[in-house]
Write a structure and sequence with these properties.
This protein has about 700 residues and is α+β, with helices and mostly antiparallel strands. It has helices at about 10, 20-25, 30-40, 45-60, 100-105, 165-185, 210-215, 215-220, 245-260, 290-310, 355-370, 370-375, 400-415, 470-490, 495-510, 520-530, 540-545, 550-555, 565-615, 620-655, 660-685, 695-700, and strands at about 65-70, 85, 105-110, 130, 140-145, 145-155, 195-210, 265-270, 280-285, 285, 310-315, 330-335, 400, 425, 435, 450, 455-460. The strands form 3 sheets. Strands 7, 8, 9, 10, 11, 12, 13, 16 and 17 form a 9-stranded mixed beta sheet that branches. Strands 1, 2, 3, 4, 5 and 6 form a 6-stranded mixed beta sheet that branches. The chain has a two-stranded antiparallel ribbon with strand order 14-15. The relative contact order is 0.10. Bound molecules: adenosine-5'-diphosphate and magnesium ion.
């Protein structure tokens, strides 16, 4: 607790079977083989796997582990685990030994029939396999279950189709590496052996008090408030963002950091976010698949630590109406294994031809596949943010900043960029303060896809969502653009001329994707429409972008998804949407019928009694009578809206699962939900606080 210090260097990655630990514990030749497979792919021999498994088990057991699990990421968007203990069949004296074989390390076979597969696996064919992703280290999870050895794995069907989010991500990383290598080779880089996609994801979250949380069925079942009148104070004072962190939250953050550091997650920054009770944590960037795994660990740990602090962590994209929701900024870049960041413009980007080619390719990729990027950032909760009066807009555009935009403009207009705007010095105007070197570019917080110095920040991703899909899409679309550019340039007789022409061509064709203005403005929506940029307003509308001819061609070409895998994902998305809204609707119905209406009925009774009593005493009861009138009419509206919602849910339930049903949920059920919420929220503002059945927004957000 307070003041109790821990040595970060000592605890960091304590619970991770790091490369260092492998080196220490494995015979040299075995370690070499493992390292080679990690770096260049391929398979471990069973003998080697046995040796690795034994070393891993010994380390785990020494640290208290009793079980292991193949930890995987099904299409639910969260992680799955089934624990197996290391216990073996006892010998005749009744003694057991702890064992773990290479076979068990490399391959698992969970019953796959209860995970969403979108028809990829007939129900009678339940076989699914998990395979160790050697590039993401095994780790020990300490929870109430004891210590569990977690082995990050990919999850595939009997016939090899991906049933998870990791498999396509790994495929996309290979694709972008291969194509990016072709690009760097054109610029005479012969040393690089691979190009690695790096990701750093900033995670936003809310914390609420456990007691209050448990009194709200909507938070318990849906992860967000389905009713709730605004508190007198919201985020208008802008006093929470970067504000002093309250003691209770600080203690939580301290524990959270410690847990994450032990798991090798580089928790780096922490701060209060814009909305009351909202916070953020960002790690240092790392290889994409590890970053994806770590983000899952972050989300899981946030929830677990909150429980220990008698709080609950809300990762939903929109837990409260009227204040900011939560997202996840996905910072993405590409670097060679020799340490060159392909997205680093250097001091004079106008002269950095390789960078300009990479930039031109990314412009092309993002413009060509804006719909896919938008899809990758959609989930049910994110519909409340994207395109719904909140950051960021649903339209994909790219922010380059003044300096690069100017370079692109010159290239498009004249084919050469002679000059480049410089950063200069920021004068503080105070003699005792240093003058600061200024970046060449200011920031733009309204852009969904912003260049921030040496990386792109994809800001659309939802806080509860896995970051696997966005990064799979980014890698895939950029791989395609690199491939097409390399196809042309490798054949060019005069490389300098050809690359110059190609940059100009791509930038000219795709300059419409660049927008440096205010992404929240009404004008931008009109302007984007004029430019022909897609404005996909919801998750269900985004789904079909996965199976357009353009998308299928892209994914099949780079072996990231087969058509069948894409179709299965579409199906899963429609189902997920329908099921989620159904739960929300049923929760509202339950709350309204069994708690809100009865509470208001009781309140009207007490008002009516008051009216009679006051009148009987010979006084004026007109205020009481008027209030009774208002409450009664709100009650009537609530009842009508409730019945409408009940009918809509019944109708939806009778439909066949799929696209049409998902759209019905969005268009009819969601509308009926909003119609029910309105009269209830109005009632909340006039009914006596003690009579209201739930903690209010004020209680939830300001009394943590
Ligand atoms: P900003 O101020 O632009 O938000 P930060 O340096 O705070 O930038 O980084 C935000 C996130 O971006 C962090 O998670 C950080 O590790 C990550 N990041 C920084 N550089 C890169 C990079 N080259 N590739 C991917 N992510 C990066
Ligand atoms: Mg940032």
């Amino acid at each position: 607790m307070m003041g109790e210090a821990f040595n970060v260097e000592e605890i960091f990655a304590k619970n991770v079977f790091t490369l260092g630990k492998m080196k220490q514990r494995l015979p040299k030749s075995v370690f070499k083989e493992v390292k080679a497979v990690m770096d260049r792919g391929g398979e471990l021999s069973l003998e080697t796997a046995d040796v690795v498994a034994k070393a891993m088990k010994d380390w785990a057991v020494e640290n208290g582990a009793t079980h292991y699990t193949h930890w995987f990421q099904p299409l639910t968007g969260i992680t799955a685990e089934k624990h197996d203990s290391f216990v073996t069949h006892p010998d005749e004296e009744g003694k057991t030994i702890m064992e773990f074989s290479g076979k068990e390390l490399i391959k698992g076979e969970p019953d796959a029939s209860s995970f969403p597969s979108g028809g990829l696996r007939a129900t009678f064919e339940a076989r699914g396999y998990t395979a160790w992703d050697m590039t993401s280290p095994a780790f020990l999870k300490e929870a109430a279950t004891g210590v569990i050895l977690c082995i990050p794995t990919a999850f595939c069907s009997y016939t090899g189709e991906a049933l998870d989010k990791k498999t396509p991500l790994l495929r996309s990383m290979e694709a972008v590496s291969e194509q990016a290598l072709r690009i760097v080779r054109l610029f005479k880089n012969e040393q690089a052996e691979k190009v690695v996609a790096s990701v750093g994801s900033e995670q936003e979250y809310f914390l609420v008090d456990k007691e209050k949380y448990l009194k709200r069925p909507d938070l318990v079942f849906a992860g967000r408030t389905l009713f709730g009148a605004p508190a007198p104070k919201g985020q208008e004072m802008e006093d929470h963002y970067f504000g002093v962190i309250r003691e209770r939250i600080g203690a939580y953050m301290k524990d959270l950091n410690e847990e994450l550091w032990k798991l090798g997650v580089t928790a780096k920054t922490q701060h209060n976010e814009v909305a009351p009770a909202q916070h953020e944590l960002a790690p240092i960037y790392e290889t994409a698949n590890i970053a994806v795994d770590h983000n899952q660990i972050v989300m899981e740990t946030m929830k677990r630590v909150a429980i220990h602090h008698d709080m609950r962590c809300l990762l939903h994209e929109k837990p409260f109406a009227g204040v900011n929701g939560s997202g996840k900024h996905n910072n993405w870049s590409l670097g060679t294994d020799t340490g060159v960041n392909l997205l680093d413009p250097g001091d004079t980007p106008n002269e950095n031809i390789q960078f300009l080619l990479v930039l031109a390719c990314i412009m092309k990729a993002v413009d060509t596949h804006a719909d896919l990027l938008r899809q990758s950032a959609s989930d049910v909760g994110n519909d409340h943010r994207l395109g719904a009066n909140e950051a960021p807009p649903a339209i994909i555009s790219m922010f380059l900043g003044e300096q690069l935009e100017d370079v692109v403009r010159q290239l498009v207009e004249t084919g050469i960029a002679e000059t480049c705007k410089e950063g200069g010095v920021l004068e503080t105007g105070v003699s005792t303060l240093p003058n600061l070197a200024k970046d060449a570019t200011d920031r733009n917080r309204t852009s969904p896809f912003a260049f921030t110095g040496n990386k792109f920040e994809f800001r659309m991703v939802g806080s509860a969502d896995s970051i696997a899909s966005p990064n799979t899409i980014l890698n895939a679309i950029v791989a395609e653009a690199f491939c097409e550019a390399a196809d042309v340039l490798e054949k060019a007789a005069d490389f300098d001329l050809a690359v110059h022409d190609l940059i100009k061509e791509y930038m000219t064709k795709h300059q419409r994707i660049i927008f440096n203005g205010n992404g929240y403005s009404e004008e931008w929506i009109k302007e984007a429409e004029r430019r022909g940029l897609p404005n996909i307003k919801s998750m269900v509308e985004a789904v079909e972008s996965l199976t357009t001819d353009k998308a299928v061609k892209l994914f099949e070409k780079f072996h990231i998804f087969t058509k069948a895998e894409l179709e299965s994902r579409e199906e899963v998305l429609y189902e997920t949407y329908a099921k989620t809204i159904n739960i929300e609707a049923l929760t509202m119905i339950d709350m309204a019928s069994r708690q809100i209406i009865p509470a208001v009925v009781r309140y009207t009774k007490s008002l009516a009694d008051t009216v009679i009593a006051v009148k009987g005493a010979g006084a004026d009861a007109s205020v009481q009578a008027k209030l009774l009138d208002q409450v009664s009419s709100g009650l009537a509206q609530t009842k009508t809206a409730l019945e409408k919602l009940q009918k809509a849910v019944e109708e939806a339930g009778a439909m066949q699962e799929g696209k049409e049903q998902a759209f019905f949920y969005k268009n009819v059920v969601c509308t009926a939900m909003e119609d029910l919420r309105r009269p209830v929220d109005r009632l909340e503002m006039i009914v006596e606080k003690e009579a209201w059945p739930y903690p209010t927004y004020g209680d939830l957000m300001f009394e943590v």
